[in-house]
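S1.2 Input.
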Amino acid sequence: MLEVLNDFLSGKVLIVLIVGLGSYFTLRSRFVQFRHFIHMFSVFKESLRSSGGQLSSFQALMLSLAGRVGAGNIAGVGIAVTLGGPGAVFWMWVTALVGMSSSYFECTLAQVYKRSDGDGLYRGGPAYYIQHGLKLRWMAMTFAVLLLVTYGLAFNGLQSYTVTHSLQNAFDIPVQYSGIALAVLLALVFLGGIKRIAAVSDLLVPVKTLIYIAVTIYVIAIQIEHVPAMLMTIVKSAFGLDPVFGGLIGSAIVMGVKRGVFANEAGLGSAPNVAAVASVKHPAAQGVVQAFSVFLDTFVICTCTALLILLSGIYDVGYSGDGIVLAQNSLAAVVGEWGRTFISVALSLFVFTCILYNYYLGENALQFMFGRSKVALLTYRGMVLALICWGSMQNLGTVFAFADITMTCLAFVNLTALAMLIKIGLRVMKDYDEQRKAGIEQPVFDGSKFTDLDLDRASWPAVKAADSVQATATAEGLQTQR
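S1.3 Output.
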């Protein structure tokens, strides 16, 4: 019954939700992900600046990438290709393309409705914009519970299983030992709170991402003459036009969307929880940054993994191995046995930062439900660490199916809320676009222009007159130069 329900929800409902509403947001925003694509790089550069003791936009980006760039980028892509053929990669691209607009709006709204937590940091996310934007406390609580169960608990057990079995396959390390070691290392980071989690992510995420991309690009580069033909196979297979993979078109769509969503998380309502912690001048700026992270996750990292597998000669129709082993064998076939070790090490780093991200999502949901309860927080930390140890030694197929179901429910609640709040999202986007059109390089969100919204005035105060005059003078000067 669980499998039937999972197939219906994540195989049908999830596709309609992610692709359908993602397309709706894309049209309503006049293709915001295309209009702002070049601008994303300048906003990313601006995000590197310090925020005076608060978490910077770059740190929030690294936190979100800690979750997005995880097991889904290696094992998830392997599963998608195994069950859906090369065409699944195309549908992962489609999911990311429309998901960029969903991510833009969910992270923008997370910034709009964020709250100061009293320690100089912020809290926010779908539960907050549902409660303060829609005034639906029950819906906000439903989302918080689903987020806690899905990410804080279930996905952490799955991530632990993935990395410990990868290490066993590569180094013959017993899973119980690597599971305990993983739990100890994570506990040391958890104790430092969000700032230590952000600091560790700030260090590990760029390193793990750049090294992984560099190695996969090297493998692709030495087989560059085969890449155009493989890209054509991916596109043709997506529509059943390739005779070898024509029978997999249905599986290609389903697996492409499911694994695409699992990899980039656009629309699920997870990334807004970390996007809200950033100190930015305008909410839409963080929306642009987070849309860029979806692009980086799927179009760059997932594509690198897919080409690594498809060009290796290991994969063929009817392959029945798991995604991790497929990726390990694919790299080893090209570069030698050290490729198997590299995948295990890369996956370990991916999973470690991903668990930190998942843990923070659960903590954020916990604080929304219970406030700053130390008992609830300590209980939650103990449960997470216990699940890390337990998950490393269990076959979590049933838990995975359950997590897929709750993930679909998360997407349903979050995307419904986004559709109900789209007018506010468009209004904030218009304010940002108008300031940029006027020549203001770094638009500023003036809380006094949005007094009808339930904003946290400590987070979004009215802009001082001097700042407003300076911004106007800058815009007028730029227009005169033009």
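S1.4 Remarks. The mean pLDDT is 82.
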